[in-house]
Structures are given as structure tokens and as C-alpha cells.
Amino acid sequence: MKTKTSESVKQKLRGNFFYVENMSLAKDFMIPLHTAYVMLAGKGQ
Fold first, then answer.
1. Would you state the torsion angle of the CA atoms of residues 5, 7, 8, 9, taken in this order, to the nearest 10 degrees?
2. Per-residue model confidence as pLDDT tens for the chain (45 residues)
3. CB-CB contact of 44 with 38 (8 Å)
4. Domain boundaries, the chain
5. Which partner from 11, 30, 40, 45 sits 20 to 30 angstroms from 3, CA to CA?
6. HEC states along 30-45?
7. CA 36 to chain centre
């Protein structure tokens, strides 16, 4: 039986692997800019 925690870990690992496979300097700059936009615009959860 899979627990909620093991699924969460798997999801985080998939995200990390995706980042490593697709990393670029431009994306590294865009992530904090996008995060700031979402926070200031109130579009987050």
C-alpha cells in the first residue's frame, strides 16, 4: 500500500529530475521573477 508521504517524495523527485534535465541560466532567472509576480498579483493559493 502506498502512503501519501511516499507519493509526495516521488512527486518531488520527479520535479527535481525534470529541473536537472532541463536546467538553463534563463530559467534560473525566470523562476524567482515568476514567483514574485504570482505573490504580488495575488494569484497564488
1. 90
2. 556 788 899 999 999 999 899 989 998 999 999 999 999 998 876
3. yes
4. 4-41
5. 45
6. HHHHHHHHHHHHCCCC
7. 14
